[in-house]
Amino acid sequence: MNSSPELLVRRDGAVTRLDMNRPDKGNALSPSLVESLCDALDAAQSDGTRLVVLGSTGRHFCTGFDLGDLAAQTDDSLMARLVRIELLLQRVHAAPFATLALASGRAMGAGADLFAACESRWIVESASFAFPGAGFGIVLGTARLADVVGAGQARLWITSGGAIDGADALRAGLATAQVDRNEVEAAISALAASMSRLDVQTHAAVRSASRARGSAGADHDLAALARSAARPGLKARIEAYRRAAAG
């Protein structure tokens, strides 16, 4: 097992396991965790990986954008971090190998977007989701979510910012399955075995051809994020959102 403090990486045959490892921070996406995920995906693209399994340690899958050092940030640094997260989401969504997210506990904001960017999306026993970014003016992952659950449902979830329970996530297609914790490893093995029917190049071509919007969609998503984050006062909007959320 190779590991960094914030990401655990394990290779098992053609399966690469990536576990976000910031349990005391709800596995929130720090800059270094984002970079570690990008590096691991780069490695998987060249080492014969057929399936990347994205999971986490601790109670929660990922509670979103890490705002622990918000006082030290500026509008520009926050925008740069959001762009890096969008590029990570695009890398997951456009991966030439299969991707599987395993969510338990909370998946919020960019964490819910990371879940939605994967091809297969499993709830492990129970999970809840939320997309609160529009509350501070950020448009992140909206089109990808709409591709998964439909435009109307995506707009409703994003504008409300409220919690989505596992049953609703399954009904809408945000989650593709719910599995018992004791059955996860067998289910992953079965999914990995199914990947071996096609060669690597054919599998990558099928994934590329079946994406709803292709590279033009990725450019649209990045532009939408940049426009929303570039509005003056990003940090102030986030601070106001946090005060309101705290009651």
Quick description:
The protein is of the alpha/beta class and 247 residues long.
Number of helical stretches of at least 4 residues: 10
Following the backbone from N to C, one meets helices and strands in this order, namely EEEHEHEHEHHEHEHHHH
Give the percentage of residues in beta strands.
15-25%
Portion of residues in helices? Answer: 40-55%
Shape, principal axes of CA atoms: globular
Class in CATH? Alpha Beta
End-to-end distance, in Å? 43 Å
The CATH topology: 2-enoyl-CoA Hydratase, Chain A, domain 1
The CATH superfamily is: 2-enoyl-CoA Hydratase, Chain A, domain 1
Second-tier CATH architecture: Alpha-Beta Complex
Low-confidence runs of at least 5 consecutive residues: none
The count of β-strands is 8
Q: Biggest sheet, open or closed, and with what strands and sense?
A: 8 strands, mixed
List the domain count as a whole number: 1
Q: State Rg.
A: 17 Å
Rounded mean pLDDT score:
92
Structural category is alpha/beta
For this entry, give a set of tags.
247 residues, alpha/beta, 2-enoyl-CoA Hydratase, Chain A, domain 1, 10 helices, 49% helix
Q: Any chance you could write out the topology, listing elements then pairs?
A:
Layout: E1 2-3, E2 7-12, E3 15-20, H1 31-46, E4 51-56, H2 75-93, E5 98-108, H3 110-117, E6 120-130, H4 142-149, H5 151-160, E7 164-165, H6 166-172, E8 177-179, H7 184-195, H8 200-210, H9 214-230, H10 234-245
Parallel strand pairs: 3-4, 4-5, 5-6, 6-8
Antiparallel strand pairs: 1-2, 2-3, 6-7
